[in-house]
Design goal:
The chain has 292 residues and is mainly alpha-helical. The chain is built from eleven helices and four strands; from the N terminus they run H-H-H-H-E-E-E-H-H-H-H-E-H-H-H. The termini are far apart.
Length: 292
Amino acid sequence: MSQLLQQIVNGLSLGSIYALIALGYTMVYGVLKLINFAHGEIFMLGTYFGMWAIAFLKLPLWLAFILSMLLTAIVGVIVEKIAYRPLRKSSRITALISAIGVSILIQNIILKLTDSKVYAFPKVFVNKYYKFGLFQVSLLQLFIFAMTLSLMIALHLLINKTKIGRAMRAVAVDQETAALMGINVNQVISITFAIGSALAAAAGMMVGLYYISVEPFMGVAPGLKAFVAAVFGGIGIIPGAMIGGLVIGLIESLIAGFGNALYKDAVVYGILILVLLIKPSGLLGKATKEKV
């Protein structure tokens, strides 16, 4: 029983990170109907920005978080303007190929800048452990829970209670009608990429603190798993991305704790196949009909 509770705690902390990354996928898809497969590399950049801010600029952790999110948001906007906006009226496969190209480009830029070295994230967080009956929770895990919850609440309020949130929802429903109503569609899409990228940077900072190791390919596996989480919850549906991230994190942690850690990736990708076969719209998604 104690091991089960411990794995649930570990799974929720891991799932919180997946949920933040998945939000970027689902926000972009909700507005553009585009899968941004460079999002894992955006997450990776956020980790590097935070590491450099702490190691070279000697910034405190909270300021490194803000700077990392800001710089990554700028990169997200630049990627949208250069790689996606010119292809907006092209086929989806063209945009998908462009996303894969951006992903490889970012990886190789970081490989060149870092000489393919693996770095250790600076130890700026003094971790402690708290015992609660049959399980324990680390201070870092509590920090991840609190940060994730705060960012998700802020995103919910932004989407549902602000003018830009209403504009984002309008563009997601119909870009042409939104433009006719006076909404700057390009600006809304840029803001969407900025927010999604900033959330990925926050997740990257947490991964750096949690796993210590930082390397150019660190965004591949979390990016794919966050995509699975977004599809599982319902791609384009923000609450679905949150639920999907937590579920995937729990599944991974339980398999690692009670089965064989070597199989956890296979199970996660197996879930993606099952969801696409059984309910392609995801847990919270609704099937839609298209006229031809």
